[in-house]
């Protein structure tokens, strides 16, 4: 009875601000809030208590409780009574996994990720650009001790990731500037690139080498080497990368791994019916 009361307490009265917002925006406002809760819960595997989730989402506890109760009935969230915490539910996973299935190249990419993992002994990743950020679709885990930059389904800024820089190197300077203007250049570590001029120099190196390097720019102690997979119009379809601790991905190994990643990305491009840009095909 006590645990049930924790979750089923009588909701507090709604604020005038929230009532006015719902009156103005109708169901769209509620949908937006529900999706905010789902996105927030997805950020932390440990889950959230009701009050903490309300603070994080910027909503009253009564509003959050009402939305969570509805989402729980549809299995998009679930409540852990032993810890009084809310978590992402099974339905959210099944709906989200449709995104990866729709990207029908994921299954075809798995043998190439395995090849990358086996040849480099490091974790191999497949990622795409979504809403001007990088999202990891799947990965082949290294058998070595590993600290992942982000989990599958997680996001990272384009300017601070190997995959992001690999893709940005295919864009025009105008498009890169536009992304910088909208997304900024976050300083995630002391080695992050935070000046446009430095980023453009780095992108020119990427174009010359055919692969990009994240040198502890997103997380200290971690390096990531990436290359683009192209579609049939020679445009970026996805990117593959190898990530590993700097103790293993040393300065001497970077060009070796970079060549492997670049070559495997070209192989996957061909396997998916894509076409390499003329400049990269010549190199």
From TrEMBL:
Gene3D superfamilies, per the entry: 3.30.450.40, Winged helix-like DNA-binding domain superfamily/Winged helix DNA-binding domain
Domain IclR-ED positions: 91-274
Region span, Disordered: 1-27
UniProt keyword terms in alphabetical order: DNA-binding, Transcription, Transcription regulation
Annotated ranges, domain HTH iclR-type: 28-90
GO terms under biological process: negative regulation of DNA-templated transcription
Annotated PROSITE patterns: HTH_ICLR, ICLR_ED
Domain of life, per lineage: Bacteria
Compositional bias segments (type: Basic and acidic residues): 9-25
Single Gene Ontology MF annotation: DNA-binding transcription factor activity
InterPro entries named in the record: GAF-like_dom_sf, HTH_MetabolicPath_Reg, Tscrpt_reg_IclR_C, Tscrpt_reg_IclR_N, WH-like_DNA-bd_sf, WH_DNA-bd_sf
Name of the molecule in the record: Acetate operon repressor
Organism annotation: Afipia clevelandensis ATCC 49720
